[in-house]
Amino acid sequence: MLVIKSHDEFASHLGKELGFSDYHTITQEQINLFSDATLDHQWIHTDTERAKTESPFKATIAHGYLTLSLIPYLWKQIVDIQNLKMEINYGIEKLRFAQAVTVNSEVRLVVKLVEIANLRGVTKATIGITLEIKDQKKPAFMGEAVFLYHFI
């Protein structure tokens, strides 16, 4: 795990891959809980029997936004940013979903520091994000996550 304690230390990684998370298995239980939380109960996500016969994937798939919601959890496995007053999820840019994530797939996050700026004492970091699917050539998504870090 990479440990970062200051803006300058963070900036020293500009243009470099920061690492990758452990694999996380997307279960039907997780998909169902996400469906309940977001009120999105589309059958492609929740009806396992119908998905086996009618879905082009022959299984249920995770919501695209479920896979996105894993970013903070997986990011924390890659980088430990210390000496913070506060951190803020600022945005997601250039996001493209490239492939559906079927139930029981294993995914991991790969990240690269694309851009970093010091905005009057606040670090704005743009992180290239790719959610890889184990044993698949195409990722689930790729894009850029933007975070604001208020170092002490």
Question: How would the blueprint of this fold be written?
Answer:
Blueprint lengths: L1 E3 L2 H5 L5 E4 L3 E2 L2 H11 L4 H4 L1 H7 L9 H6 L1 H5 L3 E3 L2 E14 L8 E14 L2 E12 L7 E11 L1
Parallel strand pairs: 1-4
Antiparallel strand pairs: 2-6, 3-6, 5-8, 6-7, 7-8
Q: Brief overview, please?
A:
This protein is α+β, with helices and mostly antiparallel strands and 152 residues long. Helices cover 25% and strands 41% of the residues.
Describe, in plain words, how this protein is organized in 3D.
The chain is of the alpha+beta class and 152 residues long. 25% of the residues lie in helices and 41% in strands. The protein contains six helices and eight strands, in the order βαββαααααβββββ. Strands 2, 3, 5, 6, 7 and 8 form a six-stranded antiparallel sheet that branches. The model has no long low-confidence stretch (mean pLDDT 97).
Counted by DSSP, the helix tally is 6
CA radius of gyration = 17 Å
Stretches where pLDDT is under 50 for at least 5 consecutive residues are: none
How many beta strands in the DSSP annotation?
8
* Structural class determined from secondary elements: alpha+beta
N-C termini distance: 21 Å
| Average of pLDDT | 97
Helix-strand topology string: EHEEHHHHHEEEEE
Shape: elongated
Q: What percentage of amino acids are in beta strands? A: 35-45%
Helix content: 25-40%
The largest β sheet comes out as:
6 strands, antiparallel
